[in-house]
Amino acid sequence: MYDIVNYEEAGTVQEAIRLLQANPRARLIAGGSDLLVKIYKGKITDAELVSLRGIIALKDISIEGDGTVRIGACATFSRIAGHPLIRKHVPVLAEAVSRVGGPQIRNIGTIGGNICNGVTSSDSAPTLFALNALLRLEGAGGTRVAPIQDFYLGPGKVDLRQAEVLTEILLTKENYQGFGGHYIKFAMREAMDIASLSCAAVCKIVGQNVIADFRLALGVAAPTPMRCLRAEEIARGRVFSEELLLETGRTAVTEVNPRTSWRATREYRLQLVEELSKRAFKQAFVKAGGVLL
Amino acid sequence: MITKKINCTVNGRQVSIEVDIRASLLDVLRDSLHLTGVKKGCAVGECGACTVLINGEPYDSCIYLAVWADGQVINTIEGECKEGRLSKVQQAFVDEGAVQCGFCTPGLIMSTTAMLQSGKKFTREEIKAELSGHMCRCTGYQNIIKAAQKALED
């Protein structure tokens, strides 16, 4: 039995906010693949839960007239990976969330939970960072929209305020249209593992292999997922070449701060940052229509 | 103790039951409904031994609260053998010697059954990916994949 002392189901986001206001100890639960394990392991005791599972609107994936792709926070990884809108407009996100756990976990785990648990190894975060995703957060005082980069405050810590619910992840058209993207999860096993390091690259090309835009995001390279802004800056406006790849990888290493854990040492992770940044950039370039000479 | 009444379909039968809010679906299937073919392995969603189908899709029942089962259609290994005849997937596991200690087998059969019921075609690599949420500590994977291939061929 899980150490749960209270469990309530919200039918709407407003109701969830009310339940959170009424009980400051209450926590939101969506898929539970992270939270229930924490309760099982005793990291959370006397859990008081407000479930978002009954809010149908939070599972929605849709596109607005202006091309903004909206992903409900309670959309599961399976649903995102298989959704025609995601496969058409942001296939790199479908690839990334397909690397979470295994099929059973992807059937229950949600993208909102993957963001709100605040871990640096989140499989969705690097890609969402690279796509400049926006988060819609609804609370008692109203709604705010925040860039995902600003949402991560530290390991396991996000800027989810009292009685606030993450309702949607927004991907605006200018941040995905024309981009090729690639995600690499480096782990000991092909499935049911957590990344030792992860890397998402998106890139846009003009003319003859000129990098019009490039974004590089990493997981497990620092206490939170992060962007490598200097490496991005170096690549923008340049013609793609092996030399540029080397320079991008070398620069990315100077921006990160990985730790040593039982999964990998800091030194190993630094080497992975350099190598995976190059590989992801190269694949993103090819997917963006670039021609390797 | 806080309980909640749920109504669901388990192996084709309507079930109406009071469940503890602290219980996992695994707890209720094993301890209340006595469906002990659903195995408790790691209890944290890593080994796949407790896999059941919910609305036709595989889930780890250990990390699925029993209260969530309200209104759902659940299938466990107990529902696969009909009138003494093994299902196509079960027979394939027997034929290919894909069962050693047997602890992972119910879960693997349910995931393979979900693949069969989807009507899709799967390559060997896709079969491996679909079954990647299951651990077999006898390391009988080769025969398990052969069994899945056999069950999924026409």
Automatic annotation (TrEMBL), chain A:
Protein's organism: Pelotomaculum propionicicum
EC number: 1.2.5.3
Keyword Flavoprotein appears in the UniProt entry: yes
Lineage: Bacteria, Bacillati, Bacillota, Clostridia, Eubacteriales
Stated name of the protein: Carbon monoxide dehydrogenase medium chain
Keyword set, alphabetical order: FAD, Flavoprotein, Oxidoreductase
Enzyme class at the top of the EC tree: oxidoreductase
Record PANTHER family: XANTHINE DEHYDROGENASE FAD-BINDING SUBUNIT XDHB-RELATED, XANTHINE DEHYDROGENASE SUBUNIT C-RELATED
Cited InterPro entries: CO_DH_flav_C, CO_DH_flav_C_dom_sf, Diverse_Substr_Oxidored, FAD-bd_PCMH, FAD-bd_PCMH-like_sf, FAD-bd_PCMH_sub1, FAD-bd_PCMH_sub2, Mopterin_DH_FAD-bd
Automatic annotation (TrEMBL), chain B:
Pfam family, one: Fer2
EC number: 1.17.1.5
Superkingdom, taxonomy of origin: Bacteria
2Fe-2S ferredoxin-type domain segment(s): 4-80
A biological process from GO: purine nucleobase metabolic process
Keyword Metal-binding carried by entry: yes
Pathway: Alkaloid degradation; nicotine degradation
Entry keyword Chloroplast: no
Keywords in alphabetical order: 2Fe-2S, Iron, Iron-sulfur, Metal-binding, Oxidoreductase
Xref: SUPFAM superfamilies: 2Fe-2S ferredoxin-like, CO dehydrogenase ISP C-domain like
Gene3D superfamilies given in the database record: 3.10.20.30, [2Fe-2S]-binding domain (1.10.150.120)
InterPro entries attached to this UniProt entry: 2Fe-2S-bd, 2Fe-2S-bd_dom_sf, 2Fe-2S_ferredoxin-like_sf, 2Fe-2S_ferredoxin-type, 2Fe2S_fd_BS, Beta-grasp_dom_sf, Diverse_Oxidoreductases, XdhC_XDHase
GO molecular function (one): metal ion binding
Protein name per Swiss-Prot or TrEMBL: Nicotinate dehydrogenase small FeS subunit
Lineage: Bacteria, Bacillati, Bacillota, Clostridia, Eubacteriales
